[in-house]
Hints:
By secondary structure, the protein is of the alpha/beta class. The protein has three domains: 2-43, no CATH class; 82-297, 2-enoyl-CoA Hydratase, Chain A, domain 1, CATH 3.90.226.10; 322-477 and 521-550, 2-enoyl-CoA Hydratase, Chain A, domain 1 (Alpha-Beta Complex), CATH 3.90.226.10. It has 21 helices and 20 strands. Strands 13, 14, 15, 16, 17, 18, 19 and 20 form an eight-stranded mixed sheet that branches. A seven-stranded mixed sheet has the order 4-5-6-7-8-10-12, sandwiched between helices. Helix 5 runs parallel beside helix 6, helix 14 runs parallel beside helix 16 and helix 18 runs antiparallel to helix 19. It is flat, with a radius of gyration of 31 Å.
Amino acid sequence: xxxxxxxxxxxxxxxxxxxxxxxxxxxxxxxxxxxxxxxxxxxxxxxxxxxxxxxxxxxxxxxxxxxxxxxxxxxxxxxxxxxxxxxxxxxxxxxxxxxxxxxxxxxxxxxxxxxxxxxxxxxxxxxxxxxxxxxxxxxxxxxxxxxxxxxxxxxxxxxxxxxxxxxxxxxxxxxxxxxxxxxxxxxxxxxxxxxxxxxxxxxxxxxxxxxxxxxxxxxxxxxxxxxxxxxxxxxxxxxxxxxxxxxxxxxxxxxxxxxxxxxxxxxxxxxxxxxxxxxxxxxxxxxxxxxxxxxxxxxxxxxxxxxxxxxxxxxxxxxxxxxxxxxxxxxxxxxxxxxxxxxxxxxxxxxxxxxxxxxxxxxxxxxxxxxxxxxxxxxxxxxxxxxxxxxxxxxxxxxxxxxxxxxxxxxxxxxxxxxxxxxxxxxxxxxxxxxxxxxxxxxxxxxxxxxxxxxxxxxxxxxxxxxxxxxxxxxxxxxxxxxxxxxxxxxxxxxxxxxxxxxxxxxxxxxxxxxxxxxxxxxxxxxxxxxxxxxxxxxxxxxxxxxxxxxxxxxxxxxxxxxxxxx
Length: 567
């Protein structure tokens, strides 16, 4: 409302009128003096609820009491055990994740309200929440209710949450602490069309659509263990988490093996040997911190691009890149030292550091842009690609492509490992998957030949034939079917064996080696336009920033087909 008063009125009078009229008219008021274009005073209406004698009825108070009882969880004796195991009660856990006010809302709180047994919320909490500025769906087991086990009503809640995530396109957090399905109540949820088996059908439909992130807080056995392995990213908690297809008791019954749960499926097993865990947290707070860091690099869904961060300079001076990379192709070094001179300061977020360590995978920011880094690690087994590393790289590249995260390949490898043991472990099968994931990725890709690029390693690391937006090399780079030593042995072994004089043979070997190295030198490759450019190492960061910027909107078409058959 606008009110105009006489020219000779003062500001104090205008303010008094504005306050009075705003209160009386219950609307915002602007008071003008004379012909003034700007108001001399304004008054805001009080829009707070009008107090009256009406309050919560007995009916509402009864409901509030019932809600309070449900939120208290299972029997007190089970709650008292949680601190001994280093665990939070599930609702305290939600407060840790989502703040003092907890979730935005919860669904299915009254599940099994009228059960004969004490089953608050049927031991499974689901709903929506805000996590570090993101809207997310969540589920969380209540370990005080039948050890977080699952039955009909909880399964229904879980399925509804997943189905809603498909509609909204918002990420899903699985806060798992479940002993599996309730065997004594399996009728009604185990084999039903809308039973527990539908979890994994929905996981599959959500896969690549929205990020699915799972944190394990306890033993997840049998059916419960499939949720973490279906998730895009899984965090286990040291000394607390485990997952296995069957409990130690069942394993002993079936196989006779006497084994503890941690030995069977603890963090050391799944982070270092099976590859089923991406990260291991020290405790509950650290688990939340890791997920908060992870989501900085991811979009809400496959239709969006990852959020941009505030650009920062790298941790170490880019001018030092060339000093970090030894000229001797057989000398090891830590590829992280190169990464830290290229990406934004402290932004490299490594995943699966203990699994297949001869390849590094992780997210980083490059001038604020989220990128996925796939890098050979010469400090581990000379950077040769073993089956577990190939599998790790394939899965990571596949996830990056699903969520529109550009890929940066840093190549320094003698190629795929050879030998009877790796053949038994499926080097061809896992190598195929890595090459396939690299081939199928439609996000912008940049390949950097840091040093060695021998054998099929150059294929798996998105070399020139794999549709990268650029293949650039540092002056230390070499590209060839194999390294000089192996090549000389393969081609000239008989000729060298005919030379009796050791000095003459050594001289011939050195000459052949140098001739071969000239043939595989990246300058030769650039001369033949095999690669796009040989760049000064000090400009690597600058070049990558410019190239990712330029190719940001590149579009790549896949052949028209239902899907491939490799992954």
